[in-house]
Here is the input.
Amino acid sequence: MSTTHVDHGQWSSRLAFILAATGAAVGLGNIWKFPYIMGENGGGAFVIVYLLCILGIGIPVMIAETLIGRRGRQSPGNSVKALAIEAGANTKWSVVGWAGLVSGFLILSFYAVIAGWAISYVFQAGAGNFNNATPAQVETIFTTLLSEPSTLIFWSTIVLLGTGLIVGLGVKHGLEKAVSYAMPAMLVLLLIIAGYAAMNGDFGKALHFMFYPDFSKLTYSGVLIALGHAFFTLSLASGAMMIYGAYLPTSTSISKSVLAIAFADTLIALIAGLAIFPIVFGNGLEASQGPGLVFVSLPIAFGQMWGGTFFGTLFFIMLSFAAFTSSIAMIESAVAWVVEHLGLSRMKAALSTVSILWFISMLTVFSFTGAEWAKLDFVFIGKHVTNYFELVDHLTSDVLLPLGGLATAIFVAWVMKKPAVKEEVDMYETTFSIWYFTLRWLTPFAVSFVFLNLVGVISF
Here is the structure.
């Protein structure tokens, strides 16, 4: 199939790129997933490992992905292919970009369903359904949502349709305009909720839990989860940073922009923890609730607290904003590829892509409803999976994202010509040397070490 070179457009400014990329990074991973996996893996010790993964692996790989996108100016697979040709290397290296596109596509297939929960809960909270509700009643609301395919399908459809329409409008009129409103609104709402939690919850216990490390509670599995989440929360190896980098003006500093994005993403993840755990601890609930932490524990707490209806509604509105900014980033690579290869308009490409995603998302819907045909029972790369959702979540977060980051590091540091790499990143010589060494040696070693432990090749 031939490829047509397409001018997809560019961000209007560095700020637009930072907002868009931060929006891609900040999502359900920060506000839904990060608090509950932190709760399951020892709190402060997990946070330290997570921050080290962001600093030592996430940021170097994010810079590498962004420079691939900007130098290639196409969808991820085509960008990597073009740069492989430029370096005189085998064009099969394009699999690095393709793997990211597929990972983002698979993540969005379940992400859209969970984002639908958030929108559904805006109306549940706004209607006062959590007011003075017992834990059993809140649990029933959640389990009822998960047991009704029609309800899950409706909200998932809303998420995917909204995503498709935004992306279909293009870079400046769709993606950029959406994040320019959604990101500031989401941050303001998160800060309001964090302030509310500090005044009405157990803030001291939350601080101790999040920032006092107890390494006895951290396992090697927890280290892998921290690494996988560093990739997940920064939208690495999902095609998002490559395609957003493709729209980055040449005059914009990649390294400075990436540092700003990583800092904002990490800060928001920590603020989310400080917004959630004071409420959890203040109401005698468990931090290790798991995926139901946001959808069961928090509604119980909001239902018992002063102003709970109002602030609970704000919380789920904020969560919905976060979900949309990430979903439009994850689908953009696939839409750009369809435009390049099939010559469709952006709107037709976007709606065609979300239609395919809708069918794939049904596997997640019926995983949650407990349909017999969606059940699984086997160990896959170090983890026992019981349904499609668990399989694809583990496959993407713990396997494809870290391996995609590893492949990206190898491609930029070993395959691309060093002068071409230096041309894209505006770093001082010493800073460049440290980053290049990290990408060439430390990142591949760290990712390989953790992954080999996961699959049982080495054991600690």
Summary: The chain is about 75% helix and 0% strand. The mean pLDDT is 90. The chain has one domain: 14-454. Strands lie at 375-380, 383-387.
